[in-house]
Design brief:
It contains eleven helices and eleven strands. By secondary structure, the chain is of the alpha/beta class. The longest helix is centred in the first third of the chain and has 21 residues.
Length: 317
Amino acid sequence: MPSHRVCNLCGSDDPVPVYTLRDYRLGLPEEFHLVRCRSCGLLYLDPQPTWQELDSHYQSDYTAYTVQHLRGAPALSQLALSYGLQRRCKLILQLRQQGRLLDIGAATGGFLNAMRHHSGWQLHGVEPVQSAAQLARDQLGLNILPTTLEQAHFPDGQFDVVTLWDVLEHLPDPHASLNEIYRVTAPGAWLVLQIPDVSSWEAKLWGRWWIGYDAPRHLYAFPSKALAALLAATGFEPVRRLHLAGGYHTFARSLAFWHSEQPSYFWRRTSERLANSWVFHVLMAPVFGTIRRLGKGPTRVVVARRVEFSTSKLGGI
């Protein structure tokens, strides 16, 4: 059964209701309650489903577990995916030219496969969905363990870079996971997070239909101040914020969520066609590209540095 949660950041038990959400991706009727901590502003689902309950919401066609980078995707989709992966790689190479990298929530290995083309890197991944991890291991030969970070039991100080691409919001205990990341990283290591930007214009436009809230898969959402406080509490100092991706695909998915609840057949059909139209995609590409360059995209990347921080001071909730 879903369990009541206190705030994962400050431990307060004084939530304010924000939205009642549904699984718009799968069209299921169950309701989920997004709340905001009155003390620190962290957004989270309360009550929170267990991993066993969430399993049915991660179906085989869930976006992260598709294999577009392996085979069979349309050419334009392949081009967009490749461009996004190369932007991620470029960011990592700006931080370090070589080292030991851990990708958490590696899915079917798209990012690690792209990083493999750059020499000097020891690449590791963890992915709790075993079918996705096995696909990456079998078809790409990647070192992705079918488990969680906490269950992997990596040695202290093993990694120079840790990445979580659209993963932090899925974790049942972000505070504990960041504590574990601190333990397995070396002094001066880099942490790179990509998360939905709750301050974005898309979040404000779509409200409860925004893909960034994607209940029940997204258990948390992080306003800037709450994320900064969480990083500080776990030994990381944010040094850069940027927007690498986002635009048409997140807009189209939110549009699809919205049209699923519209009573008018005309609006449902029109929004569905727009969401799936590559012509619309191409025409709108300059608009969404400009939005991203202005720092207004629906996702944001936060680059943080591990600071010297006594492990005895790492907080716990």
